[in-house]
Automatic annotation (TrEMBL):
InterPro entries: RidA, RutC-like_sf, YjgF/YER057c/UK114. CDD domains: YjgF_YER057c_UK114_family. This is 2-iminobutanoate/2-iminopropanoate deaminase. Pfam families: Ribonuc_L-PSP (PF01042). It comes from the Bacteria.
Amino acid sequence: MKKIITTSNAPAPIGPYNQAVLTGNMLYTSGQIAIDPKTNELFKGSLEDETTLVMKNLEAILNEAGMTFENVIKTSIFISDMNNFAVINKIYGKYFNEDTAPARETVEVANLPKFVNVEISAIAIKDI
């Protein structure tokens, strides 16, 4: 059975999807971009701040499901310009212990929703 995970501490969905779905002990998050959850407006600022907001949005969803970044087993990072990889990776790395960091792919794409620089999704597992 699936349980829909929703929190006001992350951006509200803007289409026919949910912030995350929990099934059994597995959590699947939707991709997060830099939308301020308080205003649901797109964040405009530095790449560092944009990436930080994306990670904070993911963290809010994880927390709502009773998890942390330690529960994450896989992430997908989509970026609009591979030249931004080092900056995004530096911010992303602050949220994980390098020894237990999840599997990941990083893919450059032609475009992202609202023309943002980065979108990140995660799969997490809750210890039982």
